[in-house]
Amino acid sequence: MKARVTVTLKNGVLDPQGKAIEGALGALGFAGIGSVRQGKVFDIEVEGTDAAKAKAELEAMAARLLANTVIENYRVEIVD
Amino acid sequence: MKSAVVVFPGSNRERDMVAAIEKITGHRPATVWHGDHDLPKVDLIVVPGGFSYGDYLRSGAIAAREPIMAAIAREAERGVTVLGVCNGFQILCEAGLLPGVLMRNAGLKFICKEVELRVETTDSRFTRGYAKGQVIRSPVAHGDGNYRTDDETLKRLQDEDRIAFRYVDNPNGSVDDIAGILSGKRNILGMMPHPENLIEPLNGGTDGRPLFEAALSAVA
Fold it and tell me: What is the pTM of this model?
């Protein structure tokens, strides 16, 4: 089973890297950018076929290590 | 007064820390490897600076989940003095022993220079050797020193007099100019600046010395 965990900054958390990327995109001539927020994507191969069990495990992984829930949100998806 | 300095793969300030403590106490602290499950019986535990695990994932994130951290949490709960400097501060935050998180510096640049800190409270075993409001010098060397926390936690830190040091001229964007904070029981201090690098005149100053003298003479 393939899973994807997406970690994003919570609203209101300052993202200096996103700001710098936003500036760089503007400098390249891309117009109409409201804002850029940088996040992380983890593609994880999970053994077994029980999607519900895998999802619960992945939620625990995200909460315990992949995301710092002080500043970040996470989303777990089973891709296939 | 016995002490221990914890070493992770990628720590690089442990030698400075060991040298500072040895200089002040005359005793060499024990060094403890990250994979150990137990600590020797000590009165002071230090988590030093560096780049544990190459700052992968988030600064301090992987180190914070190592076996030795459970032992540090147990000892801290018993009231043992714990000091985290720079990466050590990041690790203590990631481990949940201190609130908040250290994010990328607001200016995105790694900062390596000397800064001025204001001592905000003398009510701790780390800061009682200073005067309240005293301005001290200390080097900083970090890319992720931008302290962040939610408004509620910030208010609690302020109300409970747990902000130990503030930057006089904020170099990294930290909320409320915070350079170092205390735990609720005031036995854990996390700070980004490096007091261990201002211990003797040859370092260019001795402003870091009162912190260690106080922490090392406190009986837990």
Answer: 0.94
The Cα–Cα gap between A69 and B111 comes to 26
As for the ipTM of the complex, it is 0.85
Domains in chain A, ordered, with CATH?
Answer: 2-78 (3.30.1280.10)
Residues in chain B closer than 8 A to A66 (CB atoms): 57
Residue B13 has pLDDT above 90, yes or no: yes
Q: Is B37 a catalytic residue?
A: no
DSSP A29: T
Which residues of chain A make contact with B99, given a CB cutoff of 8 A?
A: 70
Task: Report pLDDT for B218.
Answer: 65
Q: A37, A9 in Cβ contact below 8 A?
A: yes
B150: which residues sit within 8 A by CB, 6+ positions away?
Answer: A70
